[in-house]
Amino acid sequence: MSQENVEIPITGKIISVNVKVGDKVGEGDVICLLESMKMENPILAPVAGTVAKIELAVGQVVEAGELVAVIEY
Question: Would you say residue 1 has pLDDT above 90?
């Protein structure tokens, strides 16, 4: 089974987490919402698969390059 790491593209604050470990996601599904520069930025699943790991929580401040989730496919 292959894995895809999903990373934060820009520094910001997590305002919602839309998936949990074990959830099935499709390519383009919203994993979480990131607030940066007063804009909401959806972080999307790059592949379809199953969420194996979530590395963030609502309210957490994250930096570019930090791991959001791991998707197995």
Answer: no
Tell me, yes or no, whether 33 lies in a domain.
Answer: yes
Output the domain CATH number for residue 9.
Answer: 2.40.50.100
In the chain, beta strands by DSSP E:
3-7, 12-17, 24-25, 30-36, 39-44, 49-54, 61-62, 67-72
The verdict on residue 47 lying in a domain is yes
Q: Look at the chain and count its residues.
A: 73
What is the tens place of the pLDDT at every residue in 8-58? 999 999 999 999 999 999 999 999 999 999 999 999 999 999 999 999 999
Dihedral over Cα of 12, 35, 8, 52: its sign: positive
Q: Cα torsion at 38, 14, 42, 50 (round to 10°)?
A: 180
The tally of domains found in the chain comes to 1
